[in-house]
Amino acid sequence: MDDSMGEQFDDSDLNITEEVAAPTTQDFGLDDINTSDTEALTASQVIELMESAWLNEKFSPEILPHKTEIVDCLLGQISYMEENLENLESNDFQKSLHQMETYRLRYLVTSYLRIRLEKIEMFNYEILKQEEVREEKNEESYLSAGELQFAKEYKENLEQHFDNVLSFWPGLPPDDWKKEYIKPNLHSFVFLKSKTEIEGVIIDDGNEEDGDLVDFKNGSQMIISYNSVSNLVKKGDVQLI
Amino acid sequence: MDPDVLEFLAEKQRVNIIPTINSNVIHLISGDVGPFRAGLPVQVPLWMAVNLKQQQKCKIQAPDWMDVDVLETIKDREKVSRNFIKMPSEHYMVEAKLLLSAAPDDIPRTDEIRTIIKDIWDMRMSKLRASVDSMMKESGSYAAVDNLTIMEINSIRPILPHALDQLYRLKKAARMHGSTQSQNTTTFNSRLTITPFKS
Hints:
The structure holds two protein chains of two kinds.
Chain A: H1 2-10, H2 14-27, H3 32-35, H4 43-59, H5 68-86, H6 93-122, H7 124-136, H8 145-166, H9 176-179, E1 189-194, E2 198-202, E3 213-216, E4 221-225, H10 226-235, E5 238-240
Antiparallel strand pairs in A: 1-4, 1-5, 2-3
Helix pairs in contact in A: 2-4, 4-5, 4-6, 5-6, 7-8
Chain B: H1 3-10, E1 14-19, E2 26-28, E3 31-33, E4 42-45, H2 46-54, E5 58-61, H3 68-80, H4 92-102, H5 110-137, E6 143-144, H6 150-155, H7 159-180, H8 185-193
Antiparallel strand pairs in B: 1-4, 1-5, 2-3
Helix pairs in contact in B: 2-4, 3-5, 4-5
């Protein structure tokens, strides 16, 4: 973390950092972050990635692949800053501004994590089932280690609670609730902004087997059903708005 | 999305301020800001500008578009165009609201600016409602929403996505029904008229 802070401090001219930051973030697809070294990004790029992940998570009906690297990196920056702030005098003019920024960034991270936890609680069975399938296929897990643990414990507690309550049920206790679990509505409609040129997105309009094909221009905005674009969201080619 | 969240998103937009204090460069996590020299304009994020203004440590320079003449041109273009025109700022409503309320003394003709922005907003919203209406009537399943700002998109959420979702369910149900019930439309219609509380 210290290294990347140093790097960020080197960018003395703000305007240059901003101009450079915008195009390069486009080159780093959200996918690349898992394979590339996160430390190589500047702090402002990490924030942009975090914002983008936050909005995607906010608007997508299902849970998206976790972004632990970004979250950890940003949290590291925030706590490093907070440690430094303790050494400043409380009436320092810069201190209040730094503090405001750390509050803002903390909100960003916590809001992102909360949305994921809400989804894990809501779609608990479905998410755990999909995680198992992914594990069998040796695919990258969508939940982080901590989230997976939370999901499993939540499921255990839920089942135990139902078992306790239903033990008073006369006769055989019903177990329908185990089969009829809540699934995210992948057909729900989302607004998106395309980050690149994409051709031939198939629209699932519920009418025929094969829906229309649409092309996205760079920067164009659409309202479209989520399942038509879910792979593009995960690849980072489109941004939900 | 909560309006507060919209405001949060918009607050990273950059504006020019003229500080009344001196300070070295501030190394924020999101990038460096400053140095502040009294009387020399400097670019800062909107949230910082509002905060400094509240502490009376700066004057805010209105963005170029926040000007009666520029806004009148935009209003005229919006009036003649059938589509939505590109707004000068992705967050024009939030910026206007924050800057005009935080720094009414720094921006000339605030009342006129407020009225024009409200006019533009009303015009765009009525266009938006008309296009949502026609989209539902044509039962479209996707639409381009180019040049709509986030706040405008937010104003038709969740009603439009929900309505489209219901439409999708109806289409799908009709199709499934058609394939299983050997195209018997008369039973389909008569079944629809049965009131659920009668039996």
